[in-house]
Every structure is written in structure tokens, then in C-alpha cells.
Amino acid sequence: MKTMIIVKNAVKIFDNGIHATDDVSFHITRGEKVGLIGVNGAGKTTLIRLICGLLRPDSGYIRVFRREPLSRDKSIGMKMGMVYGLSGILAGKGKVSFGFDALSAFEGSGNLDKDLTIKNNFELIRTIYRIPKDLFQMRFKELDDALGIGEYMNYHVGQLSLGQKMRAEIASVLIYEPELLILDEPLIGIDVSAKESVRELLRKKSSDQNMTIILATHNVEEIEKICDRVMFLDKGKLIYNGSFDKIKYSYGCMNRISVEFEEDVPDLLDLPVVRYVIQNHRMTAWYNSDLVSAKEITSFIASRYKIKDLLIHKPTIEETVKNMVGEMYT
Amino acid sequence: MSMDLIQLFKAYAKTGIKTRFQYHLDSFLLSLAVFVREASSIFGVYFLLLKFDTLNDWNIKEIFFMFSILSATYSLFIMFFMVFRDFPDWIKHGDFDRILLRPRGIFVQMILNGADWVAALSHGCISILMFILSANSVGIRWNAGSIFYYLVTMISGTVIQGAIFVFFSAFNFYFSKNHGIKEFVFWKSRRFATFPVSIYGGVVQNILMFVIPFAFVNYFPAQYLLRKSDMAAYPEYYMYLSPVIAIVGFTLAYVFWRFSLRYYQS
Question: Could you tell me the CA-to-CA distances from A87 to A95, A218, B44, B230 in Å, in that order?
């Protein structure tokens, strides 16, 4: 297996004292699809910028294609593609306010020049990445079929909606078929049906060319469909690095049910749940959804007491990972 | 490689021209505004010369000729070095990050990437107008030698102004805020360069010759072609120094810029 990215003890502390990347280490080998998850401010974008060479680590060792990203070696640029959505830009610029400022910052950034038409942008990319014309046309047709960008060719990037722009951004990177594709919240603003075709395209392209993907997002669905490994960042620390299935099957099925009764409940000893807490006429229980369904639990309870209100909570990936990490440490 | 560069240049030129002229009315009004601003400063010179007839032996036509060199080189400068002029915005909007991530020379991309065609056009028009008004009535014998000298002057003047902006834009790698020093220094010097350098006091003269060398953009080259009496105050070889200053100045600015790039973080 060919190692493509090595990150060892990378630390990045911003001027305001925030440890955006705190002693992070990992390897990514060729062809891997890695999902990077974590809440906003967890350090996803900082990590990506360190890998791209847009930020300098305070300490630690980073190599991409066996080169230091900050060397700005042209061979890295040829093999790497990056798409970043709104949150990536906000985090990257250290902006907190969401508003006109954030949006106008977004307008300017990305792989596409906002002052140019899509057509001109692609023409430029074709020249920069030295793509032969016929090959370019062939690839473009494929991308157009999946992303439907052909109809905006003569629009300026600045005139496009967020979704249209993101699709064009994705196409502008896939057109030169990079070996390493880095996506930071790439599906922002894209509508549901288009999302599916983008995912399908990414899956196809990446498996056809054994493309390595790093996908940063807070949307688990995207990770689930594209990635086989997950790295979970929390406050700059890498707290989980492993297969997605492991999270999902071992820890992801722990659902929570909250029930409010009309009267006080003495006890529910024989309830088929993992554990439960009762306080006056409220009860919270955790159950394994693989072993028992919510229906079974509720009908069991309803046969004995009068239910006033009921809430079932499926854990988010963040909660799942945190539960899991908590379990590992305790 | 050079073939490759030509391809790249062609691609950029194509997109550059198309886009910045896309918004017809905007471009037109902006051109007009720049044109009027420049023309008004020329009128200022004109009225001044009505009163004094000559400034240190320079008559109105001769000053127009010198001004045409300034405008022409500025027009060329804006075609090649606009990105360095607007560099803080480029960094702020993430455009510079895009360039950094692309597998081509950073400097080459920057030079090819932007041209303020609106400004280039209006300054170009002014320079052509001033040239037509003066070139045939200031006693220049246009032959192969003087035309060659004039062309070298154009290139040197463009490169000298480029060097000034490349140098100042390097500071943006250290300080994220743009303090406007660059604009102040550049525009003040450019304003001074409207008149013969010899009319100023020692400090301003020295600044214009050795710090922000606008004197070598238009004054000394114009002296070569016009031979005015105030040239006696300077060494003869200053008239041949512009290309040297352009090459040395630009090399220094470039080295400093490349060095400073290491401190850049997006």
C-alpha cells in the first residue's frame, strides 16, 4: 500500500490561543476514502489547510506525495484537487458572523474565478492542467451529465446560486482527475436529488481511478455513502480513527426513548432495555435498536401505564462517537 | 516550456479581455471617470504653464510629452501588474489561495491573471492623446535610434512601476491589514512625476530618483529625447540608467517577494 499522506504530531495554534489542531497523527494510503467529521470549530478545515500547504503547522511533520506541502511543489498541485464550501471558508478565515460578510467572502473563493464565466474558467483549467482537448471534452460531457453544468457555461461564477456554484466547483476539480481529492463541505446548497447524483459521481470517479478522497462534513449520510474510514475531530484532537461500520454497528444502535406518564410510575423492572432512569412520572431509557423495536417497548409500557408524551431519539454521529470514546476511556 | 507559457498566456488573455469588458456600461463609465481625472490634472498643468510659459526650460508641449510617457507606462503596468496593485483584496477573497494550489508558477499566474483593462484603456487613451499633441512639435527626430530608445523607455518604465508594487505587496505576507502606504507613496510619487524633477527640492528629488524612482520612468528618458538645459544638473549617464534600474529594482523586489511568500498563511 502506498502512503499518500502522513501527518505526525501536527499542532496548529491560532493567534487567539485556540488549538485548532492538537497533536494529530494519521496516515492515508492511496485509494482510501476518509471522512473527516466533527462539529463546527472542531478543526476539520484547519487540518485540510495544513495538508494543502495553506497553513504552516506550529510543530509536527506533514508529507503529501512524499513532499512537504509548504514547499509548494508544482507536482503536488497537479495531483491534488480541493473543493470547499461555505463553512470551510468561514472557518478558514476565522469568521464568526454569518451574514453578508460571510457570503461575500464565499463569493470570491474557490477553484473558480468569480469574475470569469464557467466556460472561461474551464478553458483556463484545461490549459493549466494540460488536458488534451478531446480528452477534456469527453470528461466534460460525463461531468455535465451528472452535474448539469452545461447550461450555465456562459454565466459568470458570481451570478450562480450556491448550489450551481458548488456543482461547478466539483466539476472543475474532477475534470483534471486528481489523485487526491479534498472536499470540505462540498454538498452545501445542493438540492437533495442533485446531492445523490454528486455522490454517485464521486463514488464512480473515485473507484474508477482509485482516487483518494478526504471528505470533511458534518453530514453522516455523505460519509456513509462515500467513505470507508472515519476520522473524528473534537476540539482539534483526533479522537477516533477507524472504520465507519464499527461506529455504526457497535455503537450507533443505542437509541433513547423518553416517556412522560400521566401518573407516577413505581417501577418497570422487566422492561427490555439496556438501562433506564425514572423520575416522578418521567422515564428515560436506552435500548439497542437491533434487539428490540420502539414499538415493542411502547406497547409494553402502554399496557401498564397511561402515556402522555413520547420521544424517540436516534443518536447523531457525534454523540455516537463521543459515547464510544467515553467508553474507551472509562 | 515556452510554448506552454504561450498557451497559458493565450488562455488568460482570452478570458481577461472578455470578462473585464463584459459589463459594458460599468466599464464605459469607469473609463470615463479615470479619463476625466487624468485630463483634469493635465488641465492643471496647462493653466500653470499659461502663467509661467516654461518650468525650468520645459514648455507645455514638452511636459505633455513627458506626461505621455508616464501614462503609457502606467497603462502597460496596469495590464501586467494589476494583481500586485490589488493584492490585499486578492488575499482577502481567497484568490491567492487558488493560485497557490495550482501547478504553475505563482508569479506567472499573478501576472497573467489580472489586467485592469478599464484603467489601461483610459490611461492609454490619455497617453496617445498627449503623444499626438506633442511628439511632432518638441523637436524629436524620430529615427531608428530614437524609436528604439522610446521602446526601451516604455518597457523600463513599466517594469520600474511593477517593481514598486511587487515590493510593497510583499508586505501583505506579514501584515494582513492593508495600511494604504503603498497607494499613498505610489500616487504621490506619480503626481510629482507630472513635472520635471528639477523643479523640486533636494529631498523630493532624491526620493524620486533613488527611492521611488519615477524620475527614471519619464523624466530622464524624456531628457534624452528633448535635451533640456536643466539636465546639466545631473550626470549624463542618468539618461541611460532606466533599463538598469528596471532590471535591478525588479530583481530585488522579486527576491524579496519570494522570500516573504514563505511567511504567508491563508
Answer: 10, 10, 52, 62
The set of cell numbers assigned to B129 is 492623446
- Residue in A closest to B8 by C-alpha: A127
Residues B264, B101: Cα–Cα separation, whole Å: 13
Average pLDDT across chain A, whole number:
82
Element (H, E) at A223: helix A220-226
- For the four alpha carbons of A121, A127, A133 and A136, in that order, the dihedral sign comes to negative
Most confident of the following: A177-191, B172-186, B238-252: B238-252
Measured CA to CA, the distance from residue A283 to residue A275 in angstroms comes to 11
User: Which residue does chain A place closest to B6, by CA atoms?
Assistant: A127
* Cα–Cα dist B43/B25, whole Å: 26
Phi, psi of A215, rounded to the nearest 5 degrees: -120, 110
**pLDDT of A75 higher than 90:** no
Predicted confidence (pLDDT) at residue A94 exceeds the cutoff of 50: no
Tell me if A289 sits within 8 A of A253, measured CB to CB.
yes
Q: ∠ CA A222-A226-A230 to the nearest 5 degrees?
A: 80
Buried b (16+ CB within 10 A) or exposed e, A145-164: ebbebeebeebbbeebeeeb
Cβ-based contacts of A77 with chain B (< 8 Å): 101-104
C-alpha cell at B235: 550626470
Residue range A124-149: mean pLDDT, rounded = 91
pLDDT band at B1 (very low <50, low <70, confident <90, very high): low
Residues in Cβ contact with B258 at an 8 Å cutoff, skipping those fewer than 6 apart? B107
Question: In whole angstroms, what is the distance from residue B17 CA to residue B160 CA?
Answer: 24
CA distances from A118 to A75, A111, A174, A195, B13 (A): 25, 11, 14, 20, 16
ipTM: 0.76
Helix (H) or strand (E) holding A34: strand A33-37
Chain B positions in Cβ-Cβ contact with residue A128 (cut-off 8 Å): 8, 11, 102-104
Residue B264: partners with Cβ closer than 8 Å, 6 or more residues away = B96, B100, B173
Inform me whether the pLDDT recorded for A54 exceeds 70: yes
Q: Tell me, yes or no, if B98 comes closer than 8 A to chain A by beta carbon.
A: yes
* Residues of chain A above pLDDT 90, percent: 23
**Global pTM value:** 0.78
The phi, psi pair for A288, rounded to 5°, reads: -90, 110
Q: Which residue has the cell 470570491?
A: A108
Task: Please report which residue ranges of B105-198 form alpha helices under DSSP H.
Answer: 106-113, 117-134, 144-169, 181-192
Contact A187, A166 (CB under 8 A): yes
For B210-266, the three-class secondary structure string (H helix, E strand, C coil) is: HHCCHHHCCHHHHHHHHCCHHHHHCCHHHHHCHHHHHHHHHHHHHHHHHHHHCCCCC
End-to-end CA distance of chain A: 34
Report percent pLDDT > 90 for chain B.
40
Q: How large is the C-alpha radius of gyration of chain A?
A: 23
Using CA coordinates, name the residue in chain B closest to A154: B19
